Amino acid sequence: FKAILTEVNREPLDVVESQEHYKSRWRSIWIMYLTMFLSSVGFSIVIMSVWPYLQKIDPTADASFLGWIIASYSIGQMVASPLFGLWSNHRPRREPLVISTAISVAANCLYAYVHVPHGHNKYYMLTARALVGFGAGKHIRSYIAGATSLTERTSAMANTSACQAVGFILGPVFQTCFTLIGEEGVTWKFLCLQLNMYTTPVLFGALLGVINIILIFAIFREHRVDDMGRQYKSINSDGEGSDVLDQNTEGSIDHVAVVALNVLFFVILFVFAVFETIATPLTMDMYSWTRKEAVFYNGIILSVIGIESVIVFMVVKTLSKKTGERAILHAGLLIVLVGFFILLPWGKKLPNIQWQEIKNNSIPRTAPSEMLAPFWSLPELQLPSNHTAEPVGCPVTQSWCLNTPMIYLAQYISSDVLIGLGYPVCNVMSYTLYSKVLGPKPQGVYMGWLTASGSAARILGPVFVSQIYTHLGPRWAFSLICGVVVASLLLLEIVYKRLIAFSVRYGRMQEENC
Length: 514
Known about the structure:
514 residues, mainly alpha, two-stranded parallel sheet
């Protein structure tokens, strides 16, 4: 009898998904897409205004404290991700989703009131941004991984990343619209609230958070399917399913693959954080751009890269079906490597030097047509003239400026395009592979560690730039980055055959792509 029962249990139990369940499952996934979009908008909508608002509310704050405020978001997210992951493994996912979003709403409201205290305002802003990061520790991708089959997973992860990218693009656009309100704006004394170009964006973000919570309660439902798309019950599920399908979770997770993917994800986020952070100082040093010009031109470049990323996310959904996620991840890392390799100084022309004692615009500025050489020649194009006493060029305090060749503008733009192509590929493929390696096991804690590793990378990236680039220059900084990417490629080669889906590893499904 035991032998017969064992054979019966070994037979696959196909629980056909009803049309109603399918529609409900995908409505919930679309709510997660929207949650990711709104979370990204809430983060990026204030990034451009943090520094001027900080200077306004607390004159004692300096640029180094701004670094802590920017890093506090990632620190909060790094702390919260494993905690929310553990919570989502043992309780319905709606609970951590609602609580984390509510924390973000409260933190945004706190940010709008940081001007009220009569002292230590910068610390209130630091607390507010840390709490926003804590609220961002929600596990959207963990739910999507558990609610999709293997064949749906790559497309769903790509859509999630695309929503995140669009949110990052539109956030600064909303911020620009709110600048029309001005610095003074309107004051509601009975609420001690100032509605101005600094506070209105975060209050708008809080409103989006409230709408998000309402939609989670109204539409979101818990759904779990296995790697083959068959529904089953778990502690998170609202709908009906089969408890017997839990047999598909039998087997251990390949922890070597898990650790390797965490390391690869750290490298991917680290190099992109370096790229984001270094854009403004690099262009100011190399091309004698003013602060305003650097912010304006790099803002345009990052917006174009954001649009490029969305297109890439859409393309990889189709491409992965033909080549497989591992091959695309490998190609993405190679593209990033080439992007940073191009940034190495190759020419002989030195950048313009910014002498400390010079307080006017007598420093000759290199025209963009000269910067583009030796790649191609363009008609003479003049940047907007600088009528202030702001010194421009590579500061003489950075000793490498005196002997390191400049990076031509064509190198910089080419590098931007390549990194903008390689990063989204690596990002979505690492998430997809990670979720497939974990399989039908509860992914909350594991996804929490992946998010935490990404947050750590975003903290250490700016520190790396401030130390290596400032003291040793771009040649050392980008050479080290190239070395890190090469090491990650070697790691990928070592674990390449282990980066397979949980169900494939245990022979429950066949791997279609290599």
